[in-house]
Amino acid sequence: MATRKAADCRKFPSEKNCSLYISGTEEEVLAVATAHAVSSHGHKNTPELRKQLQAMLEDERPGTGARAEAR
Q: In 10 A of CB 49, how many CB atoms?
């Protein structure tokens, strides 16, 4: 299984004091973090923004992500 990645908006100063924590595959987190940065923080969706967001991704800490339950 691939290492899950996470982006934690609390680690970056903002006027909104944003507390969003996103975790998933690197591709999922990057897509959602980009959409969040654009819609909630007013950034433009540029290659530079995506590069900055990708650089801030961390390996998800065990026990911090939601667990899917088998049905």
A: 16
User: What pLDDT sits at residue 2?
Assistant: 75
The residue assigned the tokens 């969003």 is 20
Instruction: Please identify every stretch of the chain with a pLDDT value under 70, giving residue numbers as ranges.
Output: 1, 63-71
CB neighbours of residue 53 within 10 Å: 19
- Using alpha carbons, list the distances in angstroms from residue 34 to 11, 39, 62: 16, 9, 24
| DSSP line for the chain | -PPPEEEEGGGS--TT----EEEESHHHHHHHHHHHHHHHH-----HHHHHHHHHH-EEPPTT-S--PPP-
